[in-house]
UniProtKB/TrEMBL annotation:
The keyword Ribosomal protein does not apply. It comes from the Bacteria. This is Aromatic ring-hydroxylating dioxygenase subunit alpha. Keywords: Dioxygenase, Oxidoreductase. Pfam families: LigXa_C. SUPFAM superfamilies: Bet v1-like. It comes from Tianweitania sediminis. InterPro entries: LigXa_C. The keyword Transmembrane helix does not apply. GO terms for molecular function: dioxygenase activity. Residues 104-362 form the LigXa-like C-terminal domain.
Amino acid sequence: MISEKLNNQITQIGPQTPAGEVLRRYWQPAALVDEMQGSASKLAVNLMGERLVLLRNDAGGFVLTQRVASPDEAPAHFPDPESIEIVDGGPVYPVVEKKGIFFAYMGPGEAPEFPNFDCFRAPDSHVFAFKGLWECNWLQALEVGIDPAHASFLHRFLQDEDPADSYGKQFRDKAANLDMPMTQVLREYPRPDIEVEETDFGLKITALRHMANDLTHVRVTNQIFPQAICIPMSREMIITQWHVPVDDQNCYWYTMFTSFSKPVDKDVMREQRLKEHRLPDYAPLKNRRNNYHYNPDEQNTLTYTGMGLDINVHDQWAVEGLGPIQDRTREHLGRGDAAIVRYRLMLRKAIKAVESKKEAALPMRGDVDVSRIVGPLSNDAIATTKDWEAASWQADMQRRSECPWDASV
C-alpha cells in the first residue's frame, strides 16, 4: 500500500503536477487521423487536463493550441468544428502523424525522437490504429496491461473457438509449436512465474507458464515508458497501446495493431471495433450504465465475466470498477505484481529526475540514440523448460526474418 499523497503524485496529470510533467516530456497520442476527415480544419482534443484544438497550419501540417471551453465541459465533449474558438496567445504544441495517430509534444524544449519500434517502421499497409474511452485514471488502465497473470482469469474463455474465425482478436490464436488454443493455455496454466527486466525503453515482462512434459509457455510483453505497452496479439500481429489521460478521471487507450506478415485488413478491424464503440467520442457501448451487458448464462458457460467476447470490455470493467482514481492506500501487492511494483518505482524515479532538472536520466532521453531502440520483442512461444529464453528469442527472429518489411533487430 502507498500513502494518499504518493497516490496523488503518480496519478494526477494536469499542468505542473509531478506525473503530468513526466508525461509531457514524451509524445502523446492526441487524435486518430480518421477523426480529421475531408476538408475539416479543426478538431476538439481533450488531453492531459487541457482543452485543446487540433489545427491544420498553412504548411499543410498540424498543431495543437488552446480553445475556449466551459469549466463543466464533459471530458469527451466534441463541439462542432465551426463553433470552436481559439484562445489568443495560447501555447502551441507541435504535432506529427504516425501510422494513423496524431502525436503531440506538450513539454518544454525540443521534442524527442521517436524510437524505431515495429509499429512506427512497418509500412502503413501493415498498421491499423484505433482508440477507446475509459472512465478511469490512466495509471490503473496501464497497470492492468502490465499484469501478465490477469489474462488467465479476467479473459478466461470456457470454450475454445476455431482460430481460423478469429482475425483481429487477441488470445484466439494457437500457441506456437503446440496444437493448443491460447485460450486453453491461459485457462489451464493460470499462475505464471513472472520475470521483470529494466530496458532502454522501460520494462521487459516475461510470464512463464510451466506445462506438462517439461514444456513452458513463454509470453513476453513490454512496458514502454511512460505509459504504453507492447504485447503479442497473435503470431502474426502485435499491439502497441498508449493509455492517454484526458484528465485525472478519464483516459483513452490508443492502439496500433502491427502485422509482421500480411497487410492488415483495416476495413474488417475497424468494423469489428465500431460494433463496440460509438462516434464521435469512441465511448464503448458496453459500460457501467448498462452493467457492461452482463449475462449470467454466458458467465456460466462461455466467459469468466459474462460480458461478451471483446477482452477490452473485460479490462474496462476491471479498471473502471476501481473507481475514477484507484485507492492504493488499501492495496496489498504480491509476487504476481512484480511489473507493477517496478513500473511505479521507475515513474517515481522519473518524477524526481524532472523535479531536480536531470531530464537526461529519463528513459529514452538524454544522450540515448533512440533510433537504435528497436522491437521490442513481444511474442508467445512454447519451449523446453531448460531452454525457454533462447527458444523465445529464436521464435521472434524467425518471424522477423520472414517479414516482408525490415523488421530486423
